[in-house]
Amino acid sequence: MEICGLVTQNKESVPLKSISVQVRVQDHVATVSSTLQYVNEEERPLEALFVFPLPADAAVCHFSAKIGEQEIVAEVQDKESARDQYDDAVSSGQQAFLLEESAESPDVFRLSVGCLSAGQNAAVTIIYITELAVQADHSLRFCLPAVLNPRYTPAGSGAGIVSEISSGCGAVPYTLTLSVHVSSPKPISKLESNCSLDPLVFLQSDHTQATVNLSPGHMFDKDFELFVFYQDTHQPSAIVEAGVTTAPPGSLMRDPVVMISLYPEFPEDVKKSLATRGEFVFVIDRSGSMGSMMHYGKGAKMRIESAKDTLLLLLKSLPMGCYFNIYGFGSHFESFFPQSVVYNQETMDQALKRVKEMKSDMGGTEILTPLKHIYSQRCHPDHPRQLFVFTDGEVGNTKEVLDLVKSHAHSHRCFSFGIGEGASAALITGMAREGSGHAQFITDTDRMQPKVMQSLRFALQPAVVNISVDWTLPDGLTVETLSPPINVLFQGQRTLIYAQLKGESSGGSEGTVTVKYSLKDQPVTNQLHFCLKPTEETGLSIHRLAARTLIRSLEQEKRSGAADVEGIRSRMVELSVQAGVSSVHTAFIAVNKDSRQTVKGPLQQRRVQTCGRSTINYCIDIDSLSLKAAQPVQPPASKFREYKQAKPKSLLGKLGQALSRNHDSKSFRHSRMMVEGCRASSARKVEPQKDLLLELVSLQKASGCWDLDATLADVFGKTEDELTNQKPAQVDGSVWATLLALIWLYGCKIEQQVEWQFVAMKAASWIGSQKVGDLSQCVCAGNVLLGCQVTKETLGI
């Protein structure tokens, strides 16, 4: 692995010059077309390698290259055959292009551009299709990954393409232009992004179509995220897509395919009831990269600090009598307790003390070992295990991790959180999928706490069991479900089903899909009627997403130890070639057979940078400049200033030499560069403003109550005497303090209710258990004291 791989031997720019992206969003499916413009500025032919990220569940369906006026469209072939063809073409002087998916992580691709003549331009176009995930605020999230962080790969696991990911060192030398077209049967409410956008333009008076462009000057130093808000997002829907008449009879591409989007609706009494039992295991990434900032704007925190704040909220929100434990992991792991313990005041206090001491000081990101240890622990009867995993998701053995989670899916649910730019979507979404949980991504200026507390609400929902899917179709039609069996349902979360329709209808124009399941011993039925007439607007998007889904299922079956491994591989290759979508066993290959030039000696190979900002995680001795174990850079400020004034050029020169000497070491493999690291460390010492919500939550007891004391009064901006003097006679100090805390939350922090909802529920439950009698007078007195207008009914008492 190279440190940068960004310049040629002549110190000139790498050949990638620009990227142009067109996104077409149709309801909740996005078709993305990216054109990469290359130019060879050297005086001899070269080969360029570009390792880049795509969404984990994307179906790559088109790959072409344009040389001058000639366009070459790639075809999907068996990967080994495609590689041989590529090598033969390049060695004989022909232009060739190879696009292949990583065997270790399906969200990493490698593009090889072979034998570009001196001064020649090449435009490479990649098209992929992806489903858009539903967010906590009901928006649909589209992400164009721009940042591909180095993936930590444990010793002994061959990293393949992932090992070629190199750390960035400065701004990328290419530009990005991006345009988005959105259309849907439902009106578009708004579009939001983490990047600057030009004004939104509606193309129809009913707001069902709109366009927007990325504003000029995007630095490509972070993922581009777009959030699409529709009216009535949670309506179930179905899309039927016609097949290709020239495809083989009975094949997936010949028959119609239907995509069903379901949003389960639980009975009202179940929605309001939350579990009071469970074993909650929190697994926190403490590798060096967690010392990076959440974002680069004002008020940013380090990732590890944001994770610690979130742990505080989680620990305060757990129900009394449940079990819990906290793990930290890096190159090794440690747990707060030898095994999960009962949640009470004593164990909560012990855990909170340890949380305050947590640092990003545990080296690399090796998540497999702690997961194996957790799964080896016995489960507690009547306390279902809920696993919460927080990581910036930079590992090289993604598939091995997912196989482990899936093998224990019967004994737990897994909720995963990707922190920061460049987190592996394949790892984060894959763990949640295989562990029957839910995945969240926390990027840019997102607050971690609201998303985590939404997942806690999912974890406290009763488990859905005995899920079945039944189809009712006209005579002559049969259905073959292509999606894996549904093993998890959450209130308000979308579930997708792909199915192949076979045969000829006898005349009926409508089908029905019925989902049945049990919830707290209650039978529940959700049903959707849909039109069998194919839509004309989707092309083959639904077929290709269905093929991708089936290929992923076959891949999982193959890795699970199926007997007919070669047969499954052949089926995957056949599906991939027929549908024209990528897979781990195939690759896109294009050869310009009209181009041929004499190549003397080996081609120069260039790696193209994939990210614009990354973070250093070395501990550097300023005097000797020797690299030690990976730690956040925090040299003494005075020592840094003294050296900087004396030998600024020598410092940077020696730093470069030290990095070069150590770039193959294990410490480098789980480290990332940011030249600004030393200067940033001094800025981190500035005391942030107090978060009054976290201050209040930190004072709550495990039972749900608060003590009446000066620290609580300080949160309210009052003195202890003011609180005590206004206390009604019929309540004691703890009831009064807890009532004031509830009034303050509802009166002053209602916009953050998703973060403190469980804290408030515990408090209201505790007050109810005290049998105080009529609290109306107390609520009135609390409102006067705190300047609020909250009713007793609002407090839930």
Task: Write up what this structure looks like.
The strands form six sheets. This protein has an eight-stranded mixed beta sheet with strand order 5-4-9-2-1-12-15-14. By secondary structure, the chain is of the alpha+beta class. The radius of gyration is 28 Å and the shape is globular. About 30% of the residues lie in helices and about 25% in strands. A hairpin with a 2-residue loop joins strand 29 and strand 30. The longest helix is centred in the C-terminal third of the chain and has 19 residues, at about 540-560. The model is unreliable at about 1-15, about 150-160, about 160-170, about 595-605 and about 605-685 (pLDDT under 50). Helix 3 packs antiparallel against helix 4 (about 345-355) and helix 18 packs across helix 20 (about 775-785). The chain folds into four domains: about 15-150 and about 160-230 and about 580-595 and about 605-610, Immunoglobulin-like; about 235-270 and about 465-580, Immunoglobulin-like, CATH 2.60.40; about 275-460, von Willebrand factor, type A domain (Rossmann fold, 3-Layer(aba) Sandwich); about 705-795, no CATH class.
